[in-house]
Amino acid sequence: MAMYETMSFHLETERLVLRPWAVSDAAEFCALLSERGKGTPPVERIRTAIAELLTATQSTGIALLPIQRRDEGDFIGYCGLIIGRTTLEEPEIAYELFQHAHGRGYATEAAGAVLDAAVATGRKRLWSTVGTWNTPSLRVLEKLGFERDRVSTEDSGEVAWLTRPLL
To answer: How far is CA 154 from the centre of its chain?
Structure first.
C-alpha cells in the first residue's frame, strides 16, 4: 500500500471554514440529516457517529469535515474525503449542505478546498458517487473537473460514479 500524507483537517476558503468535528455539532448534524426526509436520528446516535468519524480520521488520515460560514459561524453541512464505496488509495469526496445553503456556491467552494487537500496527500485520483437525479450535485462535480465513469443501479436508484485525476 502506498503511503500518503495526512489530509489537512482545517481548511479555509474566502467564505468557509472546514474543521474537525466536535460533540457539540451533534444537534445541527441531526437537523441536517433530517432534511433527507427519513426522520430525525437520535442525537445520541449522532454523537456516536461523530466519535466514529474522529476515530476513522485518526486511522485513515482523511476526514469528513463540518462546514461553517466564516462570517456567520454557523454549521451549514459537511464536506471531505471518505472511503465510502471506494478505497483509501482512491477515496470519495462527499458533501451535504442544509437546503437553505443551496445555490450559493458553498458546495463548490468547500469541495474545491477538499480537492486541494487531497492533492497535497499525494493521491492520484478521487471518486464521487451521486444519485443521477441530483443535478445540482452533479454540476458541482463537473465544475471541479470530475467525469462520469459509469452508472450503477442500487436500492436507492441509479448512482453515477465519477472520477477526477489529481495530477
So the answer is: 20
Look up residue 88 and give its three cell numbers: 483509501
- Which candidate, 91, 121, 126, 116, places its Cα nearest to that of 4? 121
- The closest alpha carbon to 4, from 85, 87, 120, 115, belongs to 120
pLDDT digits (tens, 9 = 90+) for 61-90: 999 999 999 999 999 999 999 998 999 999
Q: How far apart are CA 66 and CA 51, in angstroms?
A: 13
pLDDT along the chain (167 residues), means of 10: 88 98 95 93 94 94 97 97 95 98 98 98 97 96 97 94 94
Distance of CA 30 to the CA centre of its chain: 16
The burial class, CB within 10 Å (0-12 / 13-18 / 19+), for 159 is middle
Identify the CA nearest to 159 among candidates 139, 133, 137, 140.
133
Task: Please name which of 126, 123, 124, 120 lies closest in space to residue 145, comparing C-alpha atoms.
Answer: 126
Query: Which residue carries 458553498 as its cell?
Result: 106
Contact 146/128 with Cβ under 8 angstroms?
A: yes
